[in-house]
Amino acid sequence: MALDLGSLFGKANSPLVGLDISTSGVKLVELSQAGKNELRLERFASEPLPRGAVVDGNIENIEQVSDAVRRVWKKSGTKAKHVALGMPPASVITKKIILPGGLLEEELEIQVETEASQYIPFALDEVSLDFDVCGPAQNSPEDVEVLLAATRKEKVEDRVAVAEAAGLKPVVMDIESYAARFAVDRLITQLPGGGKGQIVALLQIGTQVTHISVLLDGETIYEREQPFGGGQLTQDIVRAYGLSHEEAETKKRNGDLPEGYEQELLEPFLENAAVEVTRAVQFFFTSTPYTRIDQIFLAGGCASIPGLVDIVADRTKISASVVSPFKGMQLASTVREKQLRLEAPAYLVACGLAMRRFD
Fold first, then answer.
1. Could you report how far apart the first and last alpha carbons of the chain are, in Å?
2. What is the C-alpha to C-alpha distance for residues 184 and 213, in angstroms, rounded to an integer?
3. Is the pLDDT of residue 112 over 70?
4. Is there a contact between 222 and 285 (Cβ–Cβ < 8 Å)?
5. Residues of the chain with pLDDT > 90: what percent?
6. Residue 192 and residue 186 in contact, taking contact as beta carbons nearer than 8 Å
């Protein structure tokens, strides 16, 4: 009943790469242990994907995606064949349930399956189901809190097929938002006072969707998705300058666009982004008992667009910074620091997946 590839919450200690497959491309990260509580970034690499290869987190073209995985693996220079993969949050149902403590593993499985059938709108034989015992339940210490995760088997099988077609062996399947938070937890401990009592909002700005998580003392207190992403700016560039989607992406990243681009396209996009972030913050305040956010972290490919972090901080009146998941890590001699500085915010999920090796 649990996923046969180590499980959604799997662990793996042998060399392992984190492989993040998103709408825009494939990103790979390999980390190693560099002493007690010290990590070293060994390798990172990315490969763009053709439009339509991945849509809304669904793999539409297994061949195109596995080709990109093969290229990114080769480009990175890694020898590791074991990979940790992520599932898009929208395709995974998660639910915390309370079960009696002291159950044997088999009894737990039966109980979880019984509970799962109440929450999952599919037949159980169509579903990959897994669970993780979080610890004693808050209000009844003799019971345990269990996190249940379920997704359609075909969605898991597509990701496994992509990795295997590229000659790799999937051993861990995680949820992308969990992997991102795993990487961010490390950064929160680097805030003043170890981040204790700090309410941190993480905004991962993807191509089409922004995923918002609000964290407090290691717990997720709020989560939602908003239909806004960096793909909008790429589309504007395509229309304004008659470029192909791929050319627009490259020129957007390199800042290699005609005069007038900043005023005509970039500034309106930044304005729009600031409105979306402010709206996300307001939604959080109106739908929870909380009345403050202490820190905003921006992640995703367009988080490092010049001017974005400043306009967000200005409009929300909240301290904002761009996430670098590798902050405080040692860097292998092969890592190009300048490239890393530019691209790091896009590697949050891949970094969290790679960290599963030491979980």
1. 22
2. 11
3. yes
4. no
5. 70
6. no
Task: Please enumerate in sequence order all residues whose Cβ is within 8 A of that of 143, keeping only pairs 6 or more positions apart, or say none.
Answer: 98, 99, 100, 101, 136, 137
Closest CA relative to residue 117, chosen from 144, 146, 148, 141: 148
pLDDT at 12 over 50: no
The tokens describing 283, both together, are 């939604």
Of 101, 105, 95, give the one whose Cα is nearest residue 143: 101
Q: Which residue has the tokens 């339940």?
A: 137
The burial class, CB within 10 Å (0-12 / 13-18 / 19+), for 245 is middle
What domains sit in the chain, N to C, each tagged with a CATH number? 91-153 (3.30.1490.300), 192-325 (3.30.420.40)
Measured distance CA(145)–CA(278) in Å, rounded: 34
77/91 Cα distance (integer angstroms): 31
Report whether 214 contacts 293 (CB < 8 A): yes
Closest among 82, 72, 65 to 161, alpha carbons compared? 65
Q: What is the dihedral of CA 171, 177, 179, 185, to 10 degrees?
A: -160
